[in-house]
């Protein structure tokens, strides 16, 4: 498993958490998604078949365009 972190500045409420979690969790190979409101970060634990670009695209699909990988 690989763990990646992303900065998502527009995350501000539980709706944001739910939207991002739902979109990223739908990617085949994602084991865990954690969204931290206090640090505005998303942590994703996933298998080899999941790419950084796919995770960013899923976060974008949830409505958040500003995504910065932290790893």
Automatic annotation (TrEMBL):
UniProt keyword Iron, yes or no: no
UniProt KW keywords: Copper, Metal-binding
PROSITE patterns: HMA_1, HMA_2
Occurrences of domain HMA (ranges): 2-67
GO BP terms in the entry: copper ion transport
InterPro entries in UniProt: Cu-bd (IPR000428), Heavy-metal-associated_CS (IPR017969), HMA_Cu_ion-bd (IPR006122), HMA_dom (IPR006121), HMA_dom_sf (IPR036163)
GO molecular function: copper ion binding
Entry protein name: Copper-binding protein
Organism: Kouleothrix aurantiaca
């Amino acid at each position: 498993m690989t763990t990646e972190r992303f900065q998502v500045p527009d995350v501000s409420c539980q709706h944001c958490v739910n939207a991002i979690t739902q979109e990223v969790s739908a990617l085949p190979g994602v084991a865990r998604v954690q969204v931290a409101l206090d640090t505005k970060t998303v942590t994703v634990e996933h298998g080899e078949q999941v790419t950084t670009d796919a995770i960013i695209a899923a976060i974008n699909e949830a409505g958040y365009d500003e995504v910065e990988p932290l790893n």
